[in-house]
């Protein structure tokens, strides 16, 4: 980025400095009140935008981002011709844009991606439909593309990426190792923000974002077709089934019976087991409310709308609670959110290793060392949900199970199944019965 947002006496301006200083007003203003460090209270200095708790912050930040994009686009177009636009000239162009006298449509990849990036931020984070975790994929892709441009000393245009030749180059680049830093032609040291040597599943995620971005460009009429990318992704990126591990019903009971002297480990064990017994996501654990437990046909059930589906389908999940699940809740005093997700998983790995119940080797390899993982290394809080679904998939009718998990599509439910388990050859004996 060549321009940045600054606050000038309460007015948010676009700052640029080449043969003079430009402070172009975005039309966004914030309170002039300052804190004891003489900084504006309503400005997020770390993220360089209006603080999120300010009224209409989303709209104001969108306005600021739009003006930064427009200013950067103009600077970039001049640089392509080998010219550093001066501050007063850039100010005139931006004023023309503001007055509607000039129309600038950039062809630069990153400038357009930043617009798409902002749209996804609003959709995934600010509207509350999904967690910030869902948005991280787009930030990772942004870092990836900045790294690609730096290493290849190129500023991509949209026309550069809409062909299979570039997709091949990008695909290969994602799969090869990446240094920690490189020296740029201008002498600066560039430190990479993304990882190299990606496995097919991670490469597929990058191409998923690229696919969404090209659909956005097609919607904006900046490209005519994006089918070539979908075809490439389908034929060239082969993702093998992810090796996962889950707890069998027998292992659930063995783990329950294993008592830990350490109170933290014992509590984390119980929270993990509750997920194995109910299919709870981490967000469900965070939002657990005892009041959602009710009586239904002689059994306790937990009825709620999962945060993941709240803004989309609003489907109510009705989860029957086993006696063991209720026993776990009693031991936890109906308090599930005790620690952060990361800390819970850290303790979980330690306690699972300590039990020596999950030390058998899997077929999953460590990407750095090539060493095969042990089962306890692959288990996490989310594997509780996988365990719940896998243990019930062959004994509970699918429509019933999907009511427990609030899934709308069978294909989504199937992603949670642990296919590494042995088959049960006894199922076919149903054909031997002759009434």
TrEMBL record:
A Pfam family matched in the record: Phage_integrase
InterPro entries reported for this sequence: DNA_brk_join_enz, Integrase-like_cat_sf, Integrase_catalytic
UniProt keyword list: DNA recombination
Keyword Zinc-finger belongs to the record: no
Domain Tyr recombinase as annotated: residue spans: 247-418
SUPFAM superfamilies: DNA breaking-rejoining enzymes
Domain of life: Bacteria
UniProt keyword Protein transport present: no
Protein's name in the database: Tyrosine-type recombinase/integrase
Species name: Flavobacterium taihuense
């Amino acid at each position: 980025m060549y321009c940045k947002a600054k606050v000038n006496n309460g007015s948010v301006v676009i700052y640029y400095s080449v043969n003079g200083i430009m402070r172009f007003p975005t039309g966004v203003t914030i309170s002039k009140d300052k804190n004891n460090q003489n900084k504006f209270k309503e400005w997020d200095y770390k993220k360089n935008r209006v603080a999120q708790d300010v009224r209409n912050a989303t709209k104001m930040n969108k306005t600021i981002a739009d003006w930064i994009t427009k200013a950067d686009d103009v600077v970039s177009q001049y640089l392509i011709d080998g010219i550093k636009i001066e501050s007063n000239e850039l100010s005139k162009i931006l004023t023309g844009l503001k007055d509607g006298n000039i129309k600038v449509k950039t062809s630069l990849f990153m400038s357009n991606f930043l617009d798409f990036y902002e749209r996804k931020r609003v959709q995934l984070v600010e509207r509350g439909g999904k967690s910030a975790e869902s948005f991280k994929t787009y930030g990772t892709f942004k870092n990836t593309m900045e790294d690609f441009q730096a290493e290849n000393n190129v500023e991509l245009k949209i026309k550069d990426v809409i062909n299979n030749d570039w997709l091949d180059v990008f695909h290969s680049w994602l799969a090869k190792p990446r240094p920690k830093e490189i020296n740029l032609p201008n002498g600066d040291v560039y430190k990479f923000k993304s990882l190299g040597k990606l496995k097919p599943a991670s490469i597929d995620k990058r191409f998923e974002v690229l696919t969404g971005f090209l659909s956005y460009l097609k919607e904006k009429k900046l490209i005519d077709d994006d089918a070539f990318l979908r075809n490439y992704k389908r034929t060239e990126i082969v993702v093998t089934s992810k090796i996962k591990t889950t707890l069998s019903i027998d292992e659930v009971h063995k783990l329950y019976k294993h008592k830990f002297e350490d109170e933290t480990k014992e509590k984390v064990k119980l929270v993990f087991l509750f997920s194995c017994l109910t299919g709870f996501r981490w967000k469900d654990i965070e939002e657990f409310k005892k009041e959602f437990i009710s009586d239904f046909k002689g059994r306790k059930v937990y009825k709620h709308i999962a945060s993941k589906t709240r803004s989309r389908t609003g489907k109510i999940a009705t989860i029957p609670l086993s006696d063991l699940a209720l026993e776990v809740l009693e031991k936890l005093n109906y308090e599930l959110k005790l620690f952060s997700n990361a800390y819970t998983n850290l303790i979980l790995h330690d306690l699972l290793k300590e039990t020596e119940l999950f030390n058998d080797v899997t077929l999953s390899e460590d990407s750095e060392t090539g060493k095969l993982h042990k089962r306890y290394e692959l288990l996490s809080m989310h594997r509780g949900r996988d365990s719940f679904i896998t243990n019930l998939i062959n004994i509970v009718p699918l429509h019933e199970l999907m009511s427990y998990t609030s899934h709308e599509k069978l294909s989504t439910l199937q992603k949670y199944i642990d296919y590494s388990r042995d088959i049960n050859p006894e199922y076919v004996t149903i054909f031997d019965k002759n009434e």
